[in-house]
Amino acid sequence: MRASVLRESRMVARDDVPEPAPGPGQVLVAVRACGICGSDLHFAQHGAEMIELARDVRDAPMDTRLDLDADVFMGHEFSAEILEAGPGTTAPAPGTLVTSQPILISGERIDGIVFSNTVIGGYAERMLLSAPLLLTVPNGLDAQRAALTEPLAVGIHAVNASRIRPGDAALVIGAGPVGISIIAALRAAGVEHVVSSDFSPVRRTLAQAMGAAEAVDPAVRSPFDVVRPTVIFEAVGVPGILDEAVRMAPSGARLVSVGMSMQPDSVRPAFAAMKNLSVRFVFGHSPKEFAAALTAIADGVVDVAPMITSTVGLDDVGAAFDGLSDPERHCKILVTP
User: Fold this and answer.
1) H or E element: which one contains 255?
2) Which domain holds residue 322?
3) Which residues span the membrane (predicted)?
4) Is the domain of 131 the same as that of 179?
5) 2-25 pLDDT per residue, tens
6) How far apart are CA 18 and CA 128, in angstroms?
7) Higher pLDDT, 333 or 47
8) Contact 120/31 with Cβ under 8 angstroms?
9) CA of 157: how far to CAs of 184, 288, 325, 332, in Å?
10) pTM for the full model?
11) CB environment 91-116: b (16+ within 10 A), e (fewer)
12) In 110-169, which ranges are continuous DSSP H helix?
């Protein structure tokens, strides 16, 4: 079987990956589309640092036993077609298009389908999924748009955590894939006054296509001069952004950090305290939010098509990783094995 794997910080194609066999409660699927996530790009360059940091954090949602001297499977934003169910497993019929939260249950063992030496992800021709977690793709939705269920679920989770209401104003700092997903989730939640901030003109245009009322170039004008936000979403993950948001936020605002900076950062708590700011860090999504994301896409509430800027095969995943480093070229590249 063919797959693209991380080897020595580069994505390379393999033709000799053992064929996965579904066990009880599992299904074998053919991957139809898989989005390349920013976390995959970061892990490719900083995997050793991420593992080391996770070892120092209690309850870190990451497998710290990963061997970076061995091939690493990735790909967690996927849609797939069912091929075969494991022994004694009830599942949709073969040929059904499905998606799932990126979790594989093997008896009493639970593995994330994110970074693994053994659990095959969506950058492969075939993979295993957990039958209880499957969601059938409805309404004739195509595989490429269905693959963006997971990133939209991240945006929905951030919006839910913010407790924003339709009449509130939102500022989304950063218009990469995460920021774009937050904008889409805000509009789906009925929030109309959404302002986006990003240095890239291409991403500012995409932010408005996805529902932002205005997109600001922070090199020209502070977004805080354009909007007095009830909620600020930080979706950059670069040191200094949080402190700037705390410094500029209006009194009583809520700050939600989704940027996932892996580096130490400095924030002046006194500024947050004096303005009675609420600061929350969020990650991932719940099964309910994942299902809501699929429904929103399938029902046409959120059109994720503008996010898809290219598709590649397994041989070109490495080049796609390189291309995603340029915000003027791409937002979301899909791998179609």
Assistant:
1) strand 254-257
2) 3-136+304-335
3) none
4) no
5) 999 999 999 999 999 999 999 999
6) 12
7) 333
8) no
9) 12, 10, 25, 19
10) 0.95
11) bbeeebbbbbbbbbbeeeeebbbbbb
12) 143-146, 149-162
